[in-house]
């Protein structure tokens, strides 16, 4: 038998078996849910009304209602390695078992964070993500496997979390969190982990958590850098305390969003897998500490952790205190409801699939046409000069043979003059290309505005960039 | 007054605007030697930002500066504390201070 046929046959059989397995597992989860082995199992008879802790639960509606003291023996065995820690103990474990944590974004940060929360026995983990698993995710999004490609990230992650711990409840929300659905989704959770990858979602989650009076553990990672802090923290009220400590919210520290052109993304700038791994793992640790009532001095409240994986340095910096005039968390807030965060940040919450169209039609060519220019001697002036405007790292990774590199990020006066000289000294056409065909248009636009009109008809941009080159010309060219 | 030695750090991507150098030590002359119209010798961060713009920032200053301060999304740390805790632009630089400009990250 041809080994390729054999591979195809085995893959088919495995897929069928997996489907069957998945059905049985779903059925099992459903039945276990009916038996209520998860959350309610722990809710014990010890009434909280006689203890001082009830003060906090009545004054803070979202505060964990902690009725639990006893743990069944399987739970003691299962969680023994963390129960032994005096910081957690039996009471800490019981609190974890009745806690509900919402993880928003099931990517590089959300995967490791959710794994540790599931392992620790957090009673309910909510997962929010609208996206599906892509091959380019797998180097960092450790809950997703090769076989999960194109299925929803929340389902893929929930599947693994249930395998890690069948005694917890995992709830999936396969949607983009927005100001319309956020309150309903987050309602009932005790804590939110911000594992998102964009700035509008960060402001949305901040305001949401301020309104719900629950803290937000906010992580971020890009390239070799990571950052982490807890926003909107409120210390529990005790019977005899007159002062309640409150930490700053995200808006206290960052009242204005950064200009959109300064915002980077993992897909555009890259990220080393272990960096979100570290930050996501620390988010889980802070979550466990918070849920087990560790005091704010020991939590990353009012402090920002800055991790630099390139130099291997970690800095912990003190942040400003809560802003008494904060737009959302002060006594007289100007923001009282969730709003339009994409407008506020002037940027999209989804990975930009921007399609610019800022050039005259004559200046734009298809990838197929570029290939003909390169191979068929269409012009008496010889083949065109191809200039790739992606970053140096992307250019090194893959490029059209013979193309030159001139990153858009650095395309300023000096580069304009170089192109001008090239136009004057030679007669070749100059074709600009990038990954998707947006940046190349911006560069050509800059040139059309900057160089003499007589040269304009020798400048071109490739529609759809290298993605189209891979589709139309070279199927072996990597799409990323 | 002798020169003021400052450890100047960039991070979180802000270093890309400064030849990718994350850490450097800079020496500042008395303020009135640098700005001839200045009436004092001491530097505050306000003037220091101008000095950085004049001496270190190559192009695209809008990615670092907005008005007379840094743009939103850059956090300034004075000896590992948020600059708001020590007077922001009016903080007076001390010899051997560590001033860090860090870009906030949003990826995940």
Query: What shape does the CA trace of chain A take?
Result: globular
Portion of residues in beta strands of chain B equals 25-35%
Overall residue-averaged pLDDT value of chain A: 90
Helix content of chain B: 10-25%
Biggest sheet of chain B: strands side by side, in what order? 2-1-7-5-6
Explain how this protein is built.
- The complex is a heterodimer of chains A (480) and B (108).
- In chain A, helix 15 (392-397) links the parallel strand 10 (385-388) and strand 11 (404-405).
- The longest helix of chain A is centred in the first third of the chain and has 33 residues, at 3-35.
- Chain A has 480 residues and is α/β, with parallel strands linked by helices.
- Chain A starts with a helix and ends in an 8-residue tail after the last helix.
- Chain A has helices at residues 3-35, 54-59, 73-78, 80-83, 89-97, 110-120, 153-164, 182-186, 199-212, 250-253, 266-269, 274-291, 341-345, 367-375, 392-397, 413-425, 439-450, 465-472, and strands spanning 100-104, 124-128, 169-173, 191-194, 216-222, 225-231, 303-308, 313-318, 364-365, 385-388, 404-405, 430-433, 459-462.
- Chain B has helices at residues 31-34, 45-55; strands at residues 4-11, 23-28, 65-66, 69-70, 74-78, 81-82, 97-103.
- Chain B has one domain (4-103): Beta-grasp domain (Ubiquitin-like (UB roll)), CATH 3.10.20.
- Chain B is 14% helix and 30% strand.
- With 108 residues, chain B is an alpha+beta fold.
- Chain B is built from 2 helices and 7 strands.
- In chain B, the strands form 2 sheets. A 5-stranded mixed sheet of chain B has the order 2-1-7-5-6, with no helix packed on it.
- Chain B starts with a strand and ends in a 5-residue tail after the last strand.
- The interface between A and B is large, with 47 and 28 residues.
